[in-house]
Design goal:
The chain has 286 residues and is an alpha/beta fold. A seven-stranded mixed beta sheet has the order 2-1-4-5-6-3-7, with helices on both faces. Helices cover 45% and strands 13% of the residues. It is globular, with a radius of gyration of 24 Å.
């Protein structure tokens, strides 16, 4: 005997419902101070952010003051600029973004603070509109952070970023700001820009298309390799903070040798030396 159609359809619907993946939990953007965005549509909370105290960042006082003031204004609901931190590698660009975020939240009441940091990976830039759609209706304010941002070859993802930063029908939400770090001031290699100039019918227009992305950042902060006194100040600051016992003359001698073997003096080189020193002294860097 044939089963009636309505109960059969009901059974099929129930079976399909059991096979379907569970619904995503409602997004709680107040659950943490920092998140990582995944292009699949997931905003993952980061309970423990990898960062250093802002007081340990030496040799970038001007950049520190400017970025902190800009971030504090934004967190208070005042106008502020997107920021591009560019320059030599290992000079504290990404460390400064994370340290400023923590300092501003501390100044405004502690954790969880009014300002959330959302990291987006460079390869997920095309999914930015979806992320903005999630954040647009929130009362919280967000800094979107992309570390080591650059574009090569025929990569057209920069056009998505341009539209998000300034263009588009909806534009960037008032509660969202974009900070990026890069080794390149114009986010694209010089040979790529020169190639556009040499092969285009109108060279100036072709180059303008490529470099105009940087113009979407109202704040440009340059970073450069540290001189030797600044490099020593970085290392001595870490030694004091972590209670590392070493003769000052030995410390400077080893620090110089370490920088020579790395071919640079920077915050990253200083931290790598401190990790080596602490390991030899049997001290943990908490």
């Amino acid at each position: 005997m044939t089963e009636p159609l309505e109960p059969l359809l009901l059974r099929i619907a129930e079976a399909l419902e059991r096979l379907a993946p569970p619904a995503k939990p409602a997004l709680d953007v107040t659950s943490a101070d920092a998140f990582v965005w995944h292009a699949s549509g997931i905003l993952e909370a980061v309970p423990d952010v990898n960062r250093v105290d802002i007081g340990l960042l030496q040799g970038i006082e001007r950049q520190k003051d400017i970025l902190q003031d800009n971030t504090l204004r934004f967190a208070r609901g005042l106008p502020a600029n997107n920021a591009l931190l560019w320059g030599a590698r290992g000079c504290g660009k990404s460390s400064l973004v994370k340290a400023v975020h923590a300092a501003v939240n501390t100044a405004l009441g502690g954790t969880p603070g009014p300002l959330a940091l959302v990291e987006i990976h460079r390869e997920d830039i095309p999914s930015l509109p979806a992320l903005l759609g999630l954040l647009r209706s929130s009362k919280r304010r967000f800094i979107l952070f992309c570390d080591d941002l650059s574009f090569d070859g025929q990569d057209a993802a920069y056009k998505s970023l341009k539209a998000v930063l300034e263009g588009g029908i909806e534009g960037r939400p008032d509660n969202v700001l974009f900070y990026a770090t890069s080794n390149r001031r114009h986010l694209m290699p010089r040979d790529m820009i020169e190639n556009e100039r040499s092969t285009a019918i109108n060279p100036s227009e072709a180059v303008e298309e490529k470099v105009s992305l940087s113009d979407r950042f109202g704040l440009w902060l340059g970073f450069h390799n540290a001189d030797q006194p600044t490099y020593f100040a970085m290392i001595e600051g870490y030694v004091r903070r972590y209670g590392l016992e070493i003769d000052p003359q030995t410390l400077r001698k080893e620090a110089v040798e370490w920088s020579v073997t790395r071919g640079a003096r920077s915050g990253r080189v200083a931290w790598q030396y401190i990790q080596d020193l602490a390991g030899r002294l049997g001290k943990r860097l908490a």
